[in-house]
Design a protein that fits this description.
The structure holds two protein chains of two kinds. Chain A is mostly helical. Helix content of chain A is 80%, strand content 0%. Chain A has one domain: Orthogonal Bundle (ABC transporter involved in vitamin B12 uptake, BtuC). Chain B is of the alpha/beta class. Chain B has a single domain, classed as Beta Barrel (OB fold (Dihydrolipoamide Acetyltransferase, E2P)). Chain B is globular and about 35 Å long. The chains are: A mainly alpha, B alpha/beta.
């Protein structure tokens, strides 16, 4: 406990914990929607787009204003990926895969050839695996994360019934007069915002875990939308906090440690649910 | 509608509980626990103003040093004690320069300080050691040198 208190004297540790809690809360809310809409892997695709956009901002010497490049590009990609075209020539999963690998390749190529930084491997390592990004946030980035996270939570709470309707039965929602395209667009924007924020926490390759694990874990225990959402949020925030503290104290990479905590909780809940299932 | 607003207020309040404001004083706060040192010349006043990073894990230390290097103005003049490995090289003018290099936990990223050493005996390159000096920065045309001035080697680490 003394060791943790020692670390808490430093602002960068406090910033990391605040932002980590907010990001994990938002990603768990989003995760429930994406898993139910069968878009679990979209987080991965969008995070690669964000990585490509980050490389573009570095090439343009806009690393201090990188959010102005990353957010619009990621939102645009999210809209394209979540748009359901009945006559689309390329289907959803193929679209995700194509955009994902193209952005990753383009991003790495740009960083390698035109990077403004002397240490490309460090930049790539930190961006892809989130080794220390969350511990090196500036005050401005912390405020941006806080404001965007609060907006996401507010939107989720205020539009909960409509999001619920669009998620469970989009055709029925459309038939009952709801503007489903608008809400799908909103979900796409929220997804993009959270993915961009979550890159700081776990890196772009590990974002899917942050989105999927808490939701699936909650779905093993609860069976209604509200309970799943609440338990998912609790699991996600708990794992993020424990993971970050373990990483700081024991010197392990932050992103991987958080994901491992999520995995362990999922495995425990899965085994318990199996045992309980056999007992009945 | 009232219920919904109440729910929003409750969530907002809960989120605010996590927020806290840091002060500049916090940055230089000294962890009470300091490691055993060989050099006994450090006065108590110096100890009070020192930023001791020797208790930190690899991940936290690397992040702290990266923050110091990114925002050197904030730390200028502070006495810093840190562990890293010794490095020796040449600058653009061919002068020999010494450094303390701090890698991250996975050793894919590194940060460090140039050392303006008061000692005449140096460790071998790659040798881990503990050093203490005054944090200074020097703006150059395309970069910034981060220096531990009046640096003293506290001890060489064997493991």
């Amino acid at each position: 406990m003394d060791v943790i208190l020692n670390y808490l004297q430093y602002p960068f540790v406090r910033y990391a914990l605040i932002v980590g809690v907010l990001i994990s809360l938002c990603s768990s809310l989003l995760g429930v929607l994406l898993v139910l809409k069968r878009y679990s892997y979209i987080g991965d695709g969008l995070s690669h787009v964000a990585f490509g956009a980050m490389a573009i901002s570095a090439v343009l010497h806009m690393t201090d204003q990188k959010m102005f490049v990353i957010l619009p590009l990621t939102v645009a990609a999210a809209v394209v990926l979540l748009k359901k075209g009945r006559n689309a020539k390329i289907q959803g999963d193929a679209k995700i895969a194509m955009i994902s690998v193209s952005s990753l390749a383009l991003g790495y190529l740009l960083m390698n050839r035109f990077s403004a930084s002397a240490n490309v491997s460090a930049d790539v390592c930190s961006t892809l695996f989130g080794s220390t990004s969350i511990l090196t946030l500036t005050k401005g980035e912390v405020w941006l994360c806080v404001i965007l996270s609060l907006l996401v939570v507010l939107m989720y709470v205020l539009l909960y019934p409509r999001i619920f309707a669009v998620t469970f039965d989009e055709d029925f929602a459309r038939a009952s007069g709801m503007n489903t395209d608008l809400y799908n667009l909103l979900i796409a924007v929220i997804t993009a915002v959270i993915i961009v924020l979550a890159m700081n926490l776990v890196g772009s390759l590990l974002i899917s875990a942050l989105v999927i694990f808490p939701s699936i874990t909650a779905m093993l225990v609860c069976h209604d939308f509200r309970s799943v959402t609440i338990l998912s949020a609790v699991t996600s925030v708990g794992c993020a906090l424990v993971g970050m503290l373990l990483a700081i104290v024991f010197g392990t990479p932050v992103g991987s440690t958080i994901v491992l905590c999520d995995l362990i909780i999922f495995a425990l809940v899965y085994v318990i649910s199996l045992i309980r299932g056999k007992g009945r | 509608m009232n219920k919904r607003v109440l729910r929003v207020v409750k969530i907002g309040f809960c989120l605010l509980l996590f927020c806290g404001c840091g002060t500049k004083k916090d940055v230089s706060a000294v962890p009470e626990e300091t490691p055993e040192t060989v050099n006994e010349e450090v006065s108590e006043t110096e100890e009070d103003e020192m930023t001791d990073l020797t208790f930190m894990s690899g991940t936290a230390l690397y992040s702290m040093v990266l923050n110091m290097v990114s925002d050197p103005v904030h730390y200028d003049g502070q006495t810093v004690r840190v562990r890293g490995y010794f490095a020796e090289g040449k600058d653009a003018d061919g002068n020999t320069v010494y450094g303390c290099v701090i890698p991250d936990a996975t050793a894919c990223c590194q940060q460090g300080f140039l050392l303006n050493l008061t000692d005449t005996e140096y460790p071998e390159s790659g040798q881990w050691f503990e050093v203490e000096g005054t944090f200074r920065y020097r703006l150059k045309e395309f970069s910034t040198d981060i220096i531990l001035d009046d640096a003293r080697i506290i001890r060489v680490l064997t493991d």
